[in-house]
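From the thread on structure requests for the teaching lab: each student submitted one protein with a one-line request. Submission from student K.M.:

"Model Transketolase from Streptomyces stramineus, tokens only."
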Amino acid sequence: MDTMRERFASTASQLLDSDPRLAVVLAEIGTDGFAAAQEAHPDRVINVGIREQLLIGTGGGLALTGMRPLVHTFASFLVDRAFEQVKLDFGHQGTGGVLVSAGGSYDWPAGGYTHMSPGDIALLDTLDGWTMHVPGHPDEAEALLRHAAAAGDDKVYVRLSVQTNAAARPVTGGGFLAVREGRRGVVVAVGPMLDSVLAAVEGLDVSVLYATTVRPFDDASLRAAIPAGATTADVVLVEPYLAGTSTAAANDALADLPHRVLGLGVGRRELRRYGSVDEYVAGLGLDPRSLRERVTAFLG
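Reply posted by the TA:
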């Protein structure tokens, strides 16, 4: 199976052939996947070199001319390093585009903290009007990328990861998918967290919602997952980025119902002995065994 990044390159290359409004902007990273596309469309596959602020500025400039830029590099460079340009060149200028990240929170532990961005979703969430997709499988990544490329002048962030679920689920570019039903609580699994969540809650009487679009937050699906007649609700959010990123959104969705929310994800404390991805996940308490202990302790 190809990776999400490989699927991004092949999908974006196909879209360049069919939509003259699209352009791909790169900052050295990912250029190999676009070699053929750059030869076919030298004016619409642009590599600015290792200049991430210029990467965003170029995308924003293209958007001002009426084009639809697909802007790509590691999340730590795309969002963290170039945040001021994202805020101004897309938000303040009122333009739209698609930011496509790789690396995520801990995809390359050996690369160190410079190549990790556990706070990307939370940071973008301080800005207005961004749709944010977190696919959990290459097929989902392709569907969401195609949706984002065709989304008029909207501002869209697509967060790719090396971690994937075993099978793709239907995605529409909005709304949570109900995967299983229960009565003791609701667990929202974001993107590549789904398989670990399902393994963790096996045998527990809980509902599981699958989120591949996290902004806008799907208030309606969360409320619908609460059993009819319930006077209280317990919700667990399992996100592959900063723990608690969506806690406020869940609280707002359930504002008129007494409830508790547990936000699980990447902690603020930096893990400095990185190891492998699996070791890093375990160190963060996001492996199935740790998730089960934390969920059952919360539900009592």
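TA comment: The mean pLDDT is 96. The chain is about 35% helix and 20% strand.
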